[in-house]
Amino acid sequence: MTFYAQEKLAIFIDGSNLYGAAKSLGFDIDYRKLLKWGASRGRLLRAFYYTALFEDQEYSPIRPLIDWLDYNGYTMVTKPTKEFTDAFGRRKVKGNMDIELAIDVMEIADRVDHIMLFSGDGDFRRLVEAVQRRGVRVTVVSTVRSQPPMVADELRRQADHFLELIDLAPEIARAPQQRPQNQDYADDSAEIMG
Fold it and tell me: 132-168: buried (b, 16+ CB within 10 Å) or exposed (e) per residue?
């Protein structure tokens, strides 16, 4: 895949989707490294991170990650989860960020040359198609090497480029000794329905 030094680039991260993909591949993301990697690929204008939060909890394990990202170059987009009971009487939690991500992509599309979408969600296929019609290149970063694959085939086919997440691991993975003790920041976001 070709990157151009003068190309204006924006990164969009579907937090729970990226967390799930990396976890299925057996590594943690180092978000400082990811930002540095993105900035080395072009003129990085903005890096967005999307996640839903449990607002009714006194402490959320994902809160330290959200705060760190917010202070270290990411534009955070969050919203509270919604709790409901399904038809079988089971308690479910919903925290879909697709609309927020799609709106932000459309708003910035006229100011960038390249969008990198860290998600495998097939719901984004039409979004990718829409920004491509505006002349924006789109790279999807996810994985087909997990069981089951974390990227929808239709999204992978629509993208201009597909980057396999495990191939980026040497550049964006957290070193094993850097893993926080007794704390898994992203457990909340991984359990939220998308």
Answer: beeebbbbbbbbeebeeebbbeebbebbeebbebbeb
The band of 178, judged by pLDDT with boundaries at 50, 70 and 90, is low
Q: Which residue has the higher pLDDT, 24 or 54?
A: 24
User: What's the rounded Cα separation, in Å, for the pair 1 and 29?
Assistant: 22
Q: What is the Cα Rg of the chain in Å? A: 16
Q: How many angstroms separate the CA atoms of 86 and 91, rounded?
A: 7
The DSSP bridge pattern shows strands 75-80 and 82-85 to be unpaired
**pLDDT at residue 56, rounded to an integer:** 66
For the chain, which domains are there?
A: 8-190 (3.40.50.1010)
pLDDT of residue 42 exceeding 50: yes
The answer on pLDDT for 108 being more than 60 is yes
d(CA 105, CA 131): 8
Q: Which helix (H) or strand (E) holds 131?
A: helix 125-133
**Gap between the Cα atoms of 167 and 101, Å rounded:** 25
C-alpha torsion angle, residues 155, 5, 174, 161 (rounded to 10): 20
